[in-house]
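Example (one chain per record):
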Amino acid sequence: MEITFSGQEVYDDSNIEVIPLLLNVYDNEIVPCDFGLSSEQELESDKLKIIISNQFEESDWDLLRDVFHDEKATLIANYDVTEEDSFFEYQFPLEHLDNIELMINYRDIFPHSEIKSVVKDGVTYELLEEYCKNANCECNLVHLHIFIDQKFVEHFEYNYIDKSVSDNSKIWIIEQLREQYEGLNLIFHSSHLKVKCLYSNEMIKLNEHVLDIIDEEYPNTPFLKDKKIGRNALCPCGSGKKYKKCCLNLS
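Predicted structure:
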């Protein structure tokens, strides 16, 4: 039996070779779902359900979970946050909306993204990535938090543009990662841009929502939208910077 990860693919009822099943790989169960199949496909689908129910062992579900995680990671890696009809939504926690300088863990946003790891002297070091989310910040850093057996050990910074490492004793980690991932610096850069873009979109939506509420409460106050912001005034985006050094050029 061949299993294909097809995402949002539209199933063709005339193609008997395609039999969709909805599986919960975490609870090891088949999830009821009406795919609008033909009678012939329904019979094949019922056969597959019986096979899975009676013959699948824990190792089979483990394999499916691995496939699921790999495909999710690939989907996230290729995800374009600039697309308007994006499949992905994320709401930043209140502490991040209140503090633009607060770093955020990449897996907090994309929980199925791949955890990069390296090995030295038989010990596996897992690396969790943190990024600055301020679109106006010019930093090119990824903060790599090191975990051994799911316990935090330490962290260091890597500049994916000039390829510098904040702690020279961690250069071996970056060298191993370069061997594992072609275009490592581009991968980090792309992840950072996704974080910044998602956060900027969230702030824009939040500001628009606030303006809508003000318009409802004070409908006859046109200056709320028409008032000109001084170049040296604090930027209304909440960055703490002067308007001329922040969002002026975006207006």
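Caption: The longest strand covers residues 123-131.
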